[in-house]
From TrEMBL:
PROSITE patterns: HIS_KIN. Its EC number is 2.7.13.3. It comes from the Bacteria. This is histidine kinase. CDD domains: HisKA. NCBIfam families: PRK11073.1. PANTHER family: SENSOR HISTIDINE KINASE, SENSORY HISTIDINE KINASE_PHOSPHATASE NTRB. It comes from Candidatus Venteria ishoeyi.
Protein backbone atom coordinates (compact mmCIF):
# COMPACT_ATOMS: atom_id res chain seq x y z
CA UNK A 1 0.00 0.00 0.00
CA UNK A 2 1.25 3.46 -0.92
CA UNK A 3 1.90 5.75 2.02
CA UNK A 4 2.51 9.48 1.79
CA UNK A 5 6.12 10.55 2.49
CA UNK A 6 6.66 12.22 5.85
CA UNK A 7 6.82 16.07 5.99
CA UNK A 8 10.54 15.76 6.82
CA UNK A 9 11.15 13.77 3.62
CA UNK A 10 9.16 16.30 1.60
CA UNK A 11 11.29 19.11 3.12
CA UNK A 12 14.41 17.20 1.98
CA UNK A 13 13.13 16.87 -1.58
CA UNK A 14 11.92 20.43 -2.16
CA UNK A 15 13.69 22.18 -5.02
CA UNK A 16 13.20 25.53 -3.23
CA UNK A 17 15.85 26.38 -0.65
CA UNK A 18 14.27 26.41 2.83
CA UNK A 19 16.00 27.49 6.03
CA UNK A 20 14.60 27.28 9.54
CA UNK A 21 15.75 29.70 12.26
CA UNK A 22 15.03 29.70 16.01
CA UNK A 23 13.46 32.83 17.62
CA UNK A 24 16.95 34.30 18.13
CA UNK A 25 17.53 33.87 14.40
CA UNK A 26 20.14 31.11 14.58
CA UNK A 27 19.90 28.50 11.84
CA UNK A 28 18.52 25.15 13.04
CA UNK A 29 17.69 23.32 9.82
CA UNK A 30 18.26 23.63 6.10
CA UNK A 31 17.20 21.40 3.22
CA UNK A 32 19.60 20.11 0.48
CA UNK A 33 18.41 22.82 -1.98
CA UNK A 34 19.49 25.39 0.63
CA UNK A 35 22.84 23.71 1.12
CA UNK A 36 23.38 23.76 -2.66
CA UNK A 37 22.50 27.47 -2.83
CA UNK A 38 24.81 28.37 0.06
CA UNK A 39 27.52 25.95 -1.12
CA UNK A 40 27.95 24.64 2.46
CA UNK A 41 26.70 21.62 4.40
CA UNK A 42 23.95 21.85 7.03
CA UNK A 43 26.54 20.90 9.65
CA UNK A 44 28.79 23.84 8.79
CA UNK A 45 25.86 26.26 8.61
CA UNK A 46 24.21 25.18 11.86
CA UNK A 47 23.84 28.05 14.32
CA UNK A 48 24.77 30.80 11.89
CA UNK A 49 22.88 34.07 12.43
CA UNK A 50 20.31 35.05 9.80
CA UNK A 51 21.76 38.56 9.43
CA UNK A 52 25.14 37.09 8.47
CA UNK A 53 23.40 35.44 5.54
CA UNK A 54 21.05 38.33 4.72
CA UNK A 55 22.83 41.52 5.83
CA UNK A 56 20.20 43.78 4.17
CA UNK A 57 17.01 41.99 5.22
CA UNK A 58 14.74 44.48 6.96
CA UNK A 59 12.17 41.80 7.85
CA UNK A 60 14.73 40.06 10.03
CA UNK A 61 15.51 43.16 12.06
CA UNK A 62 11.91 43.07 13.24
CA UNK A 63 10.77 39.53 12.40
CA UNK A 64 7.08 39.08 11.57
CA UNK A 65 4.87 38.79 14.64
CA UNK A 66 1.98 37.19 12.78
CA UNK A 67 1.79 33.85 10.97
CA UNK A 68 1.43 35.62 7.60
CA UNK A 69 4.40 35.31 5.23
CA UNK A 70 6.39 38.42 4.31
CA UNK A 71 8.37 38.56 1.08
CA UNK A 72 11.39 40.75 0.32
CA UNK A 73 12.50 40.87 -3.31
CA UNK A 74 16.04 41.25 -4.59
CA UNK A 75 17.91 40.61 -1.36
CA UNK A 76 21.64 39.94 -1.21
CA UNK A 77 22.44 36.47 0.10
CA UNK A 78 25.94 36.07 1.46
CA UNK A 79 27.37 32.84 0.07
CA UNK A 80 29.88 32.69 2.85
CA UNK A 81 33.36 33.84 1.99
CA UNK A 82 32.73 33.70 -1.76
CA UNK A 83 30.27 36.16 -3.18
CA UNK A 84 26.73 37.52 -2.98
CA UNK A 85 23.80 36.28 -5.02
CA UNK A 86 20.40 37.92 -5.39
CA UNK A 87 17.35 36.13 -4.00
CA UNK A 88 13.68 36.64 -3.31
CA UNK A 89 13.11 35.76 0.33
CA UNK A 90 9.82 34.78 2.00
CA UNK A 91 9.76 34.66 5.79
CA UNK A 92 7.01 32.90 7.68
CA UNK A 93 6.77 32.87 11.42
CA UNK A 94 5.76 29.42 12.69
CA UNK A 95 3.12 30.55 15.09
CA UNK A 96 2.50 28.93 18.42
CA UNK A 97 -1.14 29.38 19.32
CA UNK A 98 -0.46 28.62 22.97
CA UNK A 99 2.25 31.21 23.50
CA UNK A 100 0.82 33.63 20.92
CA UNK A 101 4.27 34.14 19.48
CA UNK A 102 6.58 32.77 16.78
CA UNK A 103 8.50 29.67 17.78
CA UNK A 104 10.63 29.57 14.64
CA UNK A 105 11.08 31.32 11.32
CA UNK A 106 10.89 29.56 8.00
CA UNK A 107 12.79 31.27 5.18
CA UNK A 108 12.20 30.26 1.56
CA UNK A 109 14.67 31.47 -1.06
CA UNK A 110 14.40 31.80 -4.82
CA UNK A 111 17.60 32.50 -6.71
CA UNK A 112 16.96 35.40 -9.11
CA UNK A 113 20.59 35.96 -10.06
CA UNK A 114 20.33 34.49 -13.54
CA UNK A 115 17.05 36.32 -14.25
CA UNK A 116 18.61 39.66 -13.18
CA UNK A 117 21.74 38.95 -15.20
CA UNK A 118 19.68 38.29 -18.33
CA UNK A 119 17.54 41.40 -17.90
CA UNK A 120 20.63 43.54 -17.38
CA UNK A 121 22.45 42.00 -20.33
CA UNK A 122 19.46 42.43 -22.60
CA UNK A 123 19.12 46.10 -21.75
CA UNK A 124 22.86 46.63 -22.21
CA UNK A 125 22.72 44.89 -25.58
CA UNK A 126 19.88 47.11 -26.74
CA UNK A 127 21.76 50.25 -25.68
CA UNK A 128 24.85 48.91 -27.35
CA UNK A 129 23.01 48.22 -30.58
CA UNK A 130 21.57 51.73 -30.65
CA UNK A 131 25.07 53.22 -30.25
CA UNK A 132 26.46 50.94 -32.92
CA UNK A 133 23.72 51.85 -35.38
CA UNK A 134 24.39 55.54 -34.78
CA UNK A 135 28.12 55.08 -35.34
CA UNK A 136 27.55 52.97 -38.45
CA UNK A 137 25.31 55.67 -39.87
CA UNK A 138 27.94 58.33 -39.19
CA UNK A 139 30.75 56.18 -40.59
CA UNK A 140 28.73 55.61 -43.74
CA UNK A 141 28.10 59.32 -44.22
CA UNK A 142 31.77 60.23 -43.68
CA UNK A 143 33.01 57.59 -46.13
CA UNK A 144 31.57 59.19 -49.26
CA UNK A 145 33.04 62.71 -48.94
CA UNK A 146 36.27 61.14 -47.73
CA UNK A 147 36.55 59.17 -50.97
CA UNK A 148 36.07 62.45 -52.90
CA UNK A 149 38.72 64.20 -50.81
CA UNK A 150 41.25 61.43 -51.42
CA UNK A 151 40.48 61.35 -55.16
CA UNK A 152 40.93 65.12 -55.41
CA UNK A 153 44.27 64.92 -53.57
CA UNK A 154 45.42 62.24 -56.01
CA UNK A 155 44.46 64.38 -59.01
CA UNK A 156 46.22 67.36 -57.47
CA UNK A 157 49.34 65.26 -56.86
CA UNK A 158 49.46 64.35 -60.52
CA UNK A 159 49.50 68.06 -61.47
CA UNK A 160 52.34 68.83 -59.10
CA UNK A 161 56.04 68.19 -59.61
CA UNK A 162 57.34 65.28 -57.49
CA UNK A 163 59.17 67.49 -54.98
CA UNK A 164 55.95 69.36 -54.11
CA UNK A 165 53.77 66.35 -53.32
CA UNK A 166 54.53 66.26 -49.60
CA UNK A 167 51.15 67.73 -48.54
CA UNK A 168 49.04 65.71 -50.96
CA UNK A 169 50.74 62.57 -49.66
CA UNK A 170 49.80 63.55 -46.10
CA UNK A 171 46.17 64.06 -47.19
CA UNK A 172 46.11 60.67 -48.96
CA UNK A 173 47.81 58.90 -46.05
CA UNK A 174 45.46 60.37 -43.45
CA UNK A 175 42.41 59.68 -45.64
CA UNK A 176 43.51 56.03 -45.85
CA UNK A 177 43.90 55.85 -42.10
CA UNK A 178 40.43 57.30 -41.60
CA UNK A 179 39.03 54.93 -44.22
CA UNK A 180 40.43 51.95 -42.29
CA UNK A 181 38.90 53.21 -39.08
CA UNK A 182 35.52 53.72 -40.76
CA UNK A 183 35.65 50.24 -42.29
CA UNK A 184 36.19 48.79 -38.82
CA UNK A 185 33.33 50.91 -37.45
CA UNK A 186 31.01 49.71 -40.20
CA UNK A 187 31.93 46.11 -39.45
CA UNK A 188 31.51 43.08 -41.60
CA UNK A 189 28.18 42.61 -43.35
CA UNK A 190 28.81 39.14 -44.70
CA UNK A 191 26.76 36.50 -42.88
CA UNK A 192 28.83 33.99 -40.90
CA UNK A 193 30.10 31.05 -42.96
CA UNK A 194 29.43 28.42 -40.33
CA UNK A 195 30.99 24.97 -40.23
CA UNK A 196 31.72 22.33 -37.60
CA UNK A 197 35.06 23.16 -36.07
CA UNK A 198 37.32 22.16 -33.21
CA UNK A 199 37.74 25.11 -30.82
CA UNK A 200 41.17 23.90 -29.71
CA UNK A 201 42.53 24.08 -33.25
CA UNK A 202 41.48 27.73 -33.56
CA UNK A 203 42.87 28.52 -30.11
CA UNK A 204 46.15 26.90 -31.05
CA UNK A 205 46.46 28.92 -34.28
CA UNK A 206 45.68 32.22 -32.54
CA UNK A 207 48.04 31.39 -29.69
CA UNK A 208 50.83 30.89 -32.23
CA UNK A 209 50.23 34.33 -33.77
CA UNK A 210 50.06 36.10 -30.42
CA UNK A 211 53.14 34.25 -29.17
CA UNK A 212 55.13 35.55 -32.12
CA UNK A 213 53.93 39.10 -31.49
CA UNK A 214 54.34 39.06 -27.70
CA UNK A 215 57.79 37.53 -27.34
CA UNK A 216 59.24 35.23 -24.71
CA UNK A 217 58.08 37.06 -21.59
CA UNK A 218 54.50 35.90 -22.00
CA UNK A 219 53.77 32.36 -20.84
CA UNK A 220 50.76 30.57 -22.30
CA UNK A 221 49.03 27.93 -20.19
CA UNK A 222 46.44 25.65 -21.78
CA UNK A 223 43.75 24.10 -19.59
CA UNK A 224 41.59 22.37 -22.19
CA UNK A 225 38.72 19.97 -21.75
CA UNK A 226 39.68 17.23 -24.25
CA UNK A 227 36.10 15.97 -24.46
CA UNK A 228 34.86 19.28 -25.91
CA UNK A 229 32.65 18.59 -28.95
CA UNK A 230 32.93 20.51 -32.23
CA UNK A 231 30.84 23.67 -32.57
CA UNK A 232 29.02 25.16 -35.57
CA UNK A 233 30.48 28.66 -36.04
CA UNK A 234 32.37 30.76 -38.59
CA UNK A 235 36.05 29.77 -38.02
CA UNK A 236 37.45 33.07 -39.33
CA UNK A 237 35.16 35.08 -37.08
CA UNK A 238 36.06 32.97 -34.05
CA UNK A 239 39.73 33.46 -34.98
CA UNK A 240 39.24 37.23 -35.07
CA UNK A 241 37.40 37.18 -31.73
CA UNK A 242 40.10 35.22 -29.92
CA UNK A 243 42.89 37.23 -31.53
CA UNK A 244 41.36 40.55 -30.40
CA UNK A 245 40.88 39.34 -26.83
CA UNK A 246 44.39 37.89 -26.56
CA UNK A 247 45.98 40.98 -28.13
CA UNK A 248 44.20 43.16 -25.58
CA UNK A 249 45.51 40.94 -22.78
CA UNK A 250 49.07 41.12 -24.09
CA UNK A 251 48.83 44.89 -24.46
CA UNK A 252 47.47 45.23 -20.91
CA UNK A 253 50.27 43.02 -19.54
CA UNK A 254 52.81 45.03 -21.54
CA UNK A 255 54.16 41.82 -23.07
CA UNK A 256 54.96 40.28 -19.73
CA UNK A 257 52.88 37.79 -17.75
CA UNK A 258 50.72 34.69 -17.97
CA UNK A 259 47.85 33.98 -20.31
CA UNK A 260 45.62 31.04 -19.42
CA UNK A 261 43.40 29.54 -22.10
CA UNK A 262 40.65 27.38 -20.58
CA UNK A 263 37.84 25.43 -22.26
CA UNK A 264 34.85 23.79 -20.59
CA UNK A 265 31.38 22.48 -21.35
CA UNK A 266 28.46 24.39 -19.82
CA UNK A 267 25.05 22.82 -19.32
CA UNK A 268 21.61 24.48 -19.31
CA UNK A 269 22.77 27.96 -20.10
CA UNK A 270 20.66 31.01 -20.95
CA UNK A 271 22.35 33.25 -23.49
CA UNK A 272 21.21 36.81 -24.24
CA UNK A 273 20.74 37.90 -27.82
CA UNK A 274 19.98 41.45 -28.94
CA UNK A 275 17.42 40.45 -31.58
CA UNK A 276 15.81 37.34 -30.15
CA UNK A 277 16.17 37.98 -26.39
CA UNK A 278 17.53 35.19 -24.25
CA UNK A 279 17.49 31.56 -25.26
CA UNK A 280 18.08 28.43 -23.29
CA UNK A 281 20.73 25.97 -24.51
CA UNK A 282 21.30 22.47 -23.16
CA UNK A 283 25.00 22.48 -24.02
CA UNK A 284 27.48 25.25 -24.73
CA UNK A 285 31.23 25.64 -24.99
CA UNK A 286 32.93 28.06 -22.61
CA UNK A 287 36.27 29.61 -23.52
CA UNK A 288 38.10 31.60 -20.82
CA UNK A 289 41.00 33.86 -21.67
CA UNK A 290 42.62 34.88 -18.41
CA UNK A 291 45.57 37.21 -17.88
CA UNK A 292 47.40 38.42 -14.81
CA UNK A 293 47.76 42.00 -15.99
CA UNK A 294 46.66 45.15 -14.10
CA UNK A 295 42.93 44.54 -14.64
CA UNK A 296 40.15 46.87 -15.75
CA UNK A 297 38.70 49.53 -13.46
CA UNK A 298 35.08 48.99 -12.45
CA UNK A 299 33.76 52.10 -14.22
CA UNK A 300 35.60 51.12 -17.41
CA UNK A 301 34.48 47.49 -17.16
CA UNK A 302 30.84 48.44 -17.73
CA UNK A 303 31.71 50.14 -21.00
CA UNK A 304 34.44 48.13 -22.65
CA UNK A 305 32.09 46.51 -25.19
CA UNK A 306 30.89 49.91 -26.41
CA UNK A 307 32.55 51.25 -29.55
CA UNK A 308 35.21 53.98 -29.15
CA UNK A 309 35.86 53.13 -25.49
CA UNK A 310 39.56 52.72 -24.95
CA UNK A 311 42.04 52.93 -22.12
CA UNK A 312 45.05 52.97 -24.43
CA UNK A 313 46.55 56.11 -25.95
CA UNK A 314 46.92 54.44 -29.34
CA UNK A 315 43.69 52.37 -29.14
CA UNK A 316 40.60 52.99 -31.25
CA UNK A 317 38.27 51.22 -28.82
CA UNK A 318 36.69 49.15 -31.57
CA UNK A 319 38.24 45.74 -30.85
CA UNK A 320 35.81 44.49 -28.21
CA UNK A 321 32.78 46.03 -29.88
CA UNK A 322 33.64 44.04 -33.02
CA UNK A 323 34.28 40.95 -30.89
CA UNK A 324 30.85 41.20 -29.28
CA UNK A 325 29.18 41.73 -32.61
CA UNK A 326 30.87 38.66 -34.13
CA UNK A 327 29.98 36.50 -31.14
CA UNK A 328 26.31 37.50 -31.36
CA UNK A 329 26.30 36.66 -35.05
CA UNK A 330 27.39 33.17 -34.03
CA UNK A 331 24.63 33.00 -31.34
CA UNK A 332 27.10 33.30 -28.48
CA UNK A 333 27.72 35.66 -25.60
CA UNK A 334 30.78 37.30 -24.05
CA UNK A 335 31.37 38.36 -20.45
CA UNK A 336 34.27 39.86 -18.59
CA UNK A 337 35.25 40.00 -14.93
CA UNK A 338 38.33 41.72 -13.72
CA UNK A 339 40.39 42.56 -10.68
CA UNK A 340 44.05 43.50 -10.48
CA UNK A 341 46.06 40.43 -11.42
CA UNK A 342 43.11 38.50 -12.84
CA UNK A 343 41.09 39.49 -15.87
CA UNK A 344 38.94 36.85 -17.51
CA UNK A 345 37.09 37.20 -20.81
CA UNK A 346 34.59 34.35 -21.21
CA UNK A 347 33.05 33.42 -24.53
CA UNK A 348 30.03 31.10 -24.59
CA UNK A 349 29.09 29.41 -27.86
CA UNK A 350 26.12 27.06 -28.05
CA UNK A 351 26.68 23.53 -29.30
CA UNK A 352 23.08 22.84 -30.14
CA UNK A 353 19.96 24.67 -31.15
CA UNK A 354 18.05 26.58 -28.46
CA UNK A 355 15.56 24.37 -26.64
CA UNK A 356 13.16 27.04 -25.42
CA UNK A 357 12.64 30.75 -25.21
CA UNK A 358 13.03 32.51 -21.91
CA UNK A 359 11.94 35.86 -20.66
CA UNK A 360 10.07 38.18 -22.97
N1 LIG B 1 42.78 42.00 -20.71
C1 LIG B 1 42.64 43.30 -20.46
N2 LIG B 1 43.23 43.86 -19.37
C2 LIG B 1 43.09 45.17 -19.09
N3 LIG B 1 42.38 46.03 -19.86
C3 LIG B 1 41.76 45.54 -20.95
C4 LIG B 1 41.86 44.16 -21.31
N4 LIG B 1 41.13 43.98 -22.44
C5 LIG B 1 40.61 45.18 -22.76
N5 LIG B 1 40.99 46.12 -21.88
C6 LIG B 1 40.59 47.54 -21.86
O1 LIG B 1 39.46 47.67 -22.70
C7 LIG B 1 39.69 48.71 -23.66
C8 LIG B 1 38.89 48.46 -24.89
O2 LIG B 1 39.44 47.39 -25.65
P1 LIG B 1 39.20 47.34 -27.20
O3 LIG B 1 39.87 46.14 -27.75
O4 LIG B 1 37.76 47.52 -27.49
O5 LIG B 1 39.91 48.65 -27.74
P2 LIG B 1 41.45 49.00 -27.82
O6 LIG B 1 42.27 47.78 -27.58
O7 LIG B 1 41.70 50.16 -26.95
O8 LIG B 1 41.60 49.46 -29.34
P3 LIG B 1 41.56 48.56 -30.65
O9 LIG B 1 40.39 49.06 -31.42
O10 LIG B 1 42.86 48.80 -31.30
O11 LIG B 1 41.36 47.14 -30.23
C9 LIG B 1 41.19 48.70 -23.84
O12 LIG B 1 41.65 49.95 -24.31
C10 LIG B 1 41.69 48.42 -22.43
O13 LIG B 1 41.72 49.60 -21.68
MG1 LIG C 1 41.84 45.99 -28.63
Amino acid sequence: MNTMPSPALMFEHLSTAVLCFDPKLHLQAINPAGEALLELSAKKLHGIHALTLFPDCKCLLTPPTTPHPVTEHGLRLNVLGHHFIMVDCTITSIWSAEDQQGSAFLVELVNIDQQLRLTREESLLLQHQATQNLLRGMAHEIKNPLGGLRGAAQLLARELPENQREYTEIIIGEADRLQNLLNRMLGSHTPPQKEWINVHKVLCRVRQIVLTEAGDNVTFLADYDPSLPDIFVDPDQLHQVLLNIMRNAIQAMENQGHLILRTRIERNLSLSHPQTKSKQYRLAVRIDIQDDGPGIEETMLEQIFYPMVTGRAEGTGLGLSIVQNLIHRNNGMIQCRSEPGETVFTVFLPIEKATSKQGK
